[in-house]
Amino acid sequence: MMKRRDFITLLGGxxxxxxxxxxxxxxxxxxxxxxxxxxxxxxxxxxxFRRGLADEGFxxxxxxxxxxxxxxxxxxxxxxxxxxxxxxxxxxxxxxTTPSALALKEATQTVPIVFVVGTDPVKIGxxxxxxxxxxxxxxxxxxxxELIAKSLELMHDVMPSSTTIAVxxxxxxxxxxxxxxxIIQDTARTLGARVMILEASxxxxxxxxxxxxxxxxxxxxxxxxxxxxLSQRDRLVELAAQHRVPTIYGYREFVTAGGLMSYGSDMxxxxxxxxxxxxxxxxxxxxxxxxxxxxxxxEMAVNLKIAKALGLTIPLPLLGRADEVIE
Length: 327
Fold this sequence. Notes:
Strand content: 15-25%
Number of strands: 13
CATH superfamily of the largest domain: Response regulator
Oligomer: single chain
Distance between the termini: 69 Å
Largest sheet: 7 strands, mixed
């Protein structure tokens, strides 16, 4: 039986150890993570980000803490979320998507930021130059904006030349949509393709866009690689199937979910590099000295089951270029 004196001694030791535990937790470096999307949408990419941290010897909950903030597809929430993260004085903040990076740039000029964006970060004012970004910001660019031209070209190769192709953009991402619009119009003229640009920044507007596709008898669809559409993946794939609209997307996840085709950057690889570079900053390197990386791996995926259901024949040369073919 434990004596009263022993119990008091044990309890006293436990109480004395509590501040040590608290200090140990406080000593653990903190990374902020800001995204305009939802966790469910970004689950695979968060896992890749954690793998990048692990590459540098950091493991969430063990020797590093991560403070997540999700705007739940409402980009107008990003400035307040960015300010909140900065106020907590993390060692570094990871920015998922262009609007998140821009919100963080406005919120701090001192806390290191590592971004992943889908456009040229110099053109939108995130960094001064790619090789030596300067300031407190660096990251990875996947250039999904530029790749939308290739998506239009691929869909033009698959469909008869008389087909009018719809292109779906998100006007809420003002800078990206403006660049994409110019690229699409230039590409359409080069290809001699007939194109109609549609816009959607809410689920109901996606429904309206498909109503327009049906009403105008548009024969195919190109969906921008903008992050909002990734969050609406299942509904977009469902509507494309329901209305039998051949569609190409910016992420392979759409194809594994039942979409026809995708063409875009290796996003998981990009998020892993964000985690890796966040780890380098935790070890003392400066964001200003870390060059902005350009993702070079491009993935094309084709779902032959969906092609067959739509009565489409995918040209063999195109299939030969695909990184993933679902049969």
